[in-house]
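Record type: monomer structure entry
Structure origin: computed from sequence
Chain ID: A
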Amino acid sequence: MKKNVFILVLCVFFVGTSFSQVKVGITGGLNAAGFIHGGEYDDEEKIGGTLVTFQAGLVADLKLTENISVVPELLFSQRGGYQKWEVVENKENTIEATITLNYVQLPVNLALYINAGKSSKLSIFAGPYAGYLLSGKGKIDTNFDGEKESQSEKIEIGSGEDQKKALDYGINAGLGYHFGSGAFLKLQYNMGLNNLNNYTSTTIKNRNIAFTVGYFF
């Protein structure tokens, strides 16, 4: 699997020789990450659900025409989720669960650029992404009658029922603003399509809103 991901990355970043113009840059920013639950999962007492994380990496702009480009990125991106439950009889008694998942991700978007005055441009983009889970951590914080306790454990990766799948994939869509200097801003939504669980009675999929900045050299 790691070999296949490496080959895919090489293909995307070196195929640029066939495009009319290629730009390479850096990018990074914040994620508002969470999960989409399904199946037998019951979230009636859940509060919250968003975890603030970060992402950073490389980006390329492979120009097809004057206003259309293929934009691949190679990122380290944290996904995950946060949940909080309150005990009905005493809402000061709480359980908080946090899961942080560390991925190497390869989104590949098709971007349409629209002139926004002077040398600036707006962009509208969409496309697929693939991710490979490197590591993860789960944390549970409890507060009962003023006594607080915290437990952490490593997320296991594999095909077992108590493990998470390594592969994630989904779709992206978003908007960007590009300054003439090479700097840019982007706001995008990522929706995972793969169930991270190895069983189907309950499903869990990544969702994320990212605000990023970057610079093309």
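Annotation 1: The radius of gyration is 20 Å.
Annotation 2: The beta strands are 21-39, 46-47, 51-63, 68-86, 94-115, 121-144, 147-154, 167-178, 183-192, 202-216.
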